[in-house]
Write a structure and sequence with these properties.
alpha/beta; Rossmann fold; 7-stranded mixed β-sheet; about 15% strand; globular; binds pyridoxal-5'-phosphate
C-alpha cells in the first residue's frame, strides 16, 4: 500500500491532558519579577490581569494538566488536526528525506492560536469575567480570541498593530463578525498609545505597544481581564496538544523525527510542537535535533541578550528573563507580523540557554521562495510566519538529496495565508525586500532595558 498522505486521529484520540515541560528540566526557569521591587511576582500580582485558573497553570509543577471537558468540546470543532506527509514536495525536491507537517490552519481562525484562546476564554468565563482585551500582530491571535470569546459569551476588545491593520483589513472584519471590537494600535484610546503617537504620528505599531494598550484597558475595568497569545508558560502549555497529537500520528506510521523545526515569534507553536518530543528525547526514546527559525529582521534568540526585560513598550508587565532586543525596539514591518516581537518566551529562552534546541534567522525573501514551492506542490498557502520553518525544512531536505540521508523532518504549518495576499502580491511583483538587521535601533533599545541584579 502507498504510504499515507494524511495521518488522522479519531476524536476519541484527542489529548486529555496538556504537557508541562518544567518538571522534566534540569533546573526551573528564573521567575518573573515585580518591576518595582525586583522580587518574584506572586499570584496576587497577576490577579488584576489573569483569572486564577490560568495563574495557577503559569506556575504549576504538575507534569500533566487535565484539559476541561468544555474546552475539549470546542477543540473537537477542528481537532485532532491532520498530520501530512509532504510527498509532492519531497518528489519536487528529489529528496530521500521524509517531510511531515502538522497542519493547524484547519482551526476556525486559521492558525494554532485557538488552542490557547479557547482555554483562556473558558477559565475567564468560569470566574465571572465579562470581557477580555488583547493585542494582535498579524491578526491571527485577535481572531482566535474573538472566536473563543464568542464560544463562551465574553466581550472582546482587540488592539491590532497598525502595520497589519492596514495590510490585512479582513482580519478585523473576521474579529467583528465574531463580536469583537478592533482598534488600530497605537490608538488615541490609551495613555500608552497617545504617548507613542505624540512622538511618532505615523508609527507602524508593534506588539509591545499594542500589549501596553490592551493591558492598560484591562487594568482600567474590574470586569475586564487581559489575554496574551504567546510567550507565557500557560500558553505554551495549551499548545502542547499539537505535539501530543503529532507524536501519536508519527507512531501510527512508525516514524520518529530526526529534525523538528518551527517558526518562533513568542515561541508558542514551536514549543507546542516540540515539548512532547523533548520529553521523549530526555527519556532516551528518540533523539531529534530541534531547530527554531526566526526572521532576520527580528532575531531575538540569535541576536538578543538573555536578561530581564519588560514584555511591553510602556513597562507595565512584570520583568521576564528572556532573549530580548529591548522592549521599545520596533521591528521593521515585515510580512510575518506574528514574528515581530522584541522578546522570546522566558521558558523557551531558558531551554535555549540549557542547549535543548538550536536557532537560526532567515530573511523573508528566502522564506517566500520556499512558500511558493510549498504552495505549488502541496497546495496549501502558508501564513508568512511558518514559511520560516518551511524554508529551513526545504534546505535540510535539499541537503539530504546531496548526502542521500533519509531523514525524517517534522514541522508545524501553524497557519494558512488566506489573509496574506498583500504579502504574496508584493512577493510576486518583486517588491518584497529584505531588511538589514537594525543593529543601531536594537542597541538604542537595549540601552533602555532596566538593570536587574540576579
Ligand atoms: C502568532 C503566530 C505565530 C507566532 O507566534 P508563536 O507564539 O511564536 O507561535 C506564528 N505563526 C502564526 C500562524 C501565528 O498566528
Amino acid at each position: 500500500m502507498a504510504e499515507p498522505t494524511k495521518i488522522l486521529l479519531d476524536e476519541s484520540e484527542l489529548p486529555t491532558h496538556w504537557y508541562n515541560v518544567i518538571p522534566d528540566l534540569p533546573e526551573p526557569p528564573p521567575p518573573p519579577l515585580h518591576p518595582g521591587t525586583h522580587q518574584p511576582v506572586g499570584p496576587e500580582d497577576l490577579a488584576p490581569l489573569f483569572p486564577m485558573g490560568l495563574i495557577l497553570q503559569e506556575v504549576t509543577g504538575e507534569r500533566y494538566v487535565e484539559i476541561p471537558e468544555a474546552v475539549r468540546e470546542v477543540y473537537r470543532l477542528w481537532r485532532p488536526s491532520p498530520l501530512y506527509r509532504a510527498h509532492n514536495l519531497e518528489r519536487h525536491l528529489d529528496t530521500p528525506a521524509r517531510i511531515y507537517f502538522k497542519y493547524e490552519g484547519v482551526s476556525p481562525a486559521g492558525s494554532h492560536k485557538p488552542n490557547t484562546a479557547v482555554p483562556q476564554a473558558y477559565y475567564n468565563a468560569a470566574e465571572g469575567v465579562e470581557r477580555l482585551t488583547t493585542e494582535t500582530g498579524a491578526g491571527q491571535w485577535g481572531s482566535a480570541l474573538a472566536f473563543a470569546c464568542a464560544q463562551f459569551g465574553l466581550g472582546c476588545e482587540v488592539w491590532q498593530v497598525a502595520a497589519s491593520f492596514t495590510q490585512k483589513p479582513y482580519r478585523a472584519s473576521m474579529m467583528r463578525l465574531w463580536g469583537a471590537t478592533v482598534h488600530s494600535s497605537p490608538s488615541e484610546l490609551t495613555a500608552a498609545g497617545r504617548a507613542v503617537l505624540a512622538e511618532h504620528p505615523d508609527s507602524p505599531g508593534s506588539l509591545g505597544i499594542a500589549i501596553s494598550e490592551a493591558v492598560e484597558a484591562a487594568l482600567a475595568d474590574e470586569q475586564t481581564k487581559y489575554a496574551l497569545g504567546s510567550v507565557l508558560n500557560h500558553v505554551l502549555l495549551h499548545q502542547t496538544v499539537i505535539g501530543e497529537e503529532a507524536l501519536l500520528q508519527l507512531a501510527k506510521v512508525g516514524d520518529t523525527p530526526d529534525l523538528i523545526v518551527g517558526c518562533t515569534g513568542g515561541g508558542s507553536n514551536f514549543a507546542g510542537l516540540f515539548f512532547p518530543f523533548l520529553r521523549e528525547k530526555l527519556a532516551g526514546r528518540m533523539a531529534p535535533s530541534i531547530l527554531a527559525v526566526e526572521p532576520a529582521a527580528c532575531p531575538s534568540l540569535t541576536k538578543g541578550e538573555y536578561r530581564y526585560d519588560f514584555g511591553d513598550v510602556a513597562g507595565m508587565t512584570p520583568l521576564m528573563k528572556m532573549h530580548t532586543l529591548g522592549h521599545d525596539f520596533i521591528p521593521d514591518p515585515i510580512h510575518a507580523g506574528g514574528l515581530r516581537y522584541h522578546g522570546m518566551s522566558p521558558l523557551l529562552s531558558h531551554l535555549y540557554e540549557l542547549g535543548l534546541f538550536e536557532a537560526e534567522a532567515i530573511d523573508q525573501t528566502q522564506c517566500f521562495d520556499a512558500a511558493l514551492t510549498f504552495a505549488r506542490t502541496q497546495g496549501i498557502v502558508p501564513a508568512p510566519e511558518p514559511t520560516h520553518a518551511i524554508a529551513a525544512a526545504v534546505r535540510e531536505a535539499e541537503r539530504c538529496r546531496e548526502t542521500g540521508e533519509s531523514k525524517v523532518i517534522l514541522t508545524a504549518l501553524c497557519g494558512h495565508g488566506h489573509f496574506d495576499m498583500a504579502a504574496y502580491d508584493a512577493y510576486l511583483s518583486g517588491q518584497l525586500r529584505d531588511h538589514d538587521y537594525p543593529a543601531e535601533a536594537v542597541a538604542e533599545a537595549m540601552a533602555r532595558v532596566p538593570v536587574v541584579e540576579d
